[in-house]
C-alpha cells in the first residue's frame, strides 16, 4: 500500500482548509489530519468513525497513520486497519 502522508511544517497551527491533501490520513475525503502527535492519536481513536470509505482507502489511511505515528513518536499497537475498527 502506498503512503501518501507527508509532514508539513507549522501544520498544527494552519487552518484546515489551507492544509494539503497529503497531510490527511484519508486524503480524498480530507479526514483526520496528521499534523502532530495529538492529531495522530485522535486519528487512531476516530478511525472507525470515518464513513463512506472503501476498504482500500482504510488500508491506505492506516499506512498514512503508521508513517505519521513513526514520524511523531506515537506508539501504534495495531498491526492492521482491522484492529482499529473492531
Helix content: 25-40%
Report mean pLDDT, rounded to a whole number.
94
The global form is globular
Tally of alpha and pi helices: 2
Give the class from helix and strand content and strand pairing. mainly alpha
Tally of individual domains: 1
- Low-pLDDT runs of 5+ residues are none
User: Nearest-angstrom radius of gyration?
Assistant: 12 Å
- Write the H/E string, N to C: EEHH
The major sheet is characterized as: 2 strands, antiparallel
Distance between the termini: 21 Å
Secondary structure tally: strands:
2
- Measured by DSSP, the beta-strand proportion falls in 5-15%
The side-by-side strand order for the widest beta sheet comes to 1-2
What would your notes on this structure say?
The chain has 86 residues and is mainly alpha-helical. The chain has one domain. Helix content is 33%, strand content 7%. It contains 2 helices and 2 strands, in the order ββαα. Strands 1-2 form a two-stranded antiparallel sheet.
Layout of helices and strands:
Layout (H helix, E strand, L loop, with lengths): L23 E3 L4 E3 L3 H10 L8 H18 L14
Antiparallel strand pairs: 1-2
Helix pairs in contact: 1-2
Keywords:
mainly alpha, globular, 2 strands, 86 residues
Concise summary:
The chain is mostly helical.
Amino acid at each position: 500500500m502506498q503512503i501518501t502522508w507527508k509532514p508539513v511544517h507549522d501544520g498544527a497551527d494552519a487552518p484546515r482548509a489551507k492544509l494539503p491533501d497529503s497531510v490527511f490520513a484519508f486524503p480524498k475525503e480530507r479526514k483526520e489530519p496528521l499534523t502532530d502527535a495529538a492529531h495522530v492519536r485522535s486519528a487512531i481513536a476516530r478511525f472507525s468513525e470515518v464513513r463512506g470509505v472503501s476498504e482500500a482507502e482504510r488500508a491506505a489511511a492506516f499506512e498514512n497513520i503508521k508513517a505519521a505515528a513513526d514520524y511523531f513518536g506515537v506508539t501504534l499497537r495495531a498491526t492492521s486497519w482491522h484492529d482499529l475498527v473492531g
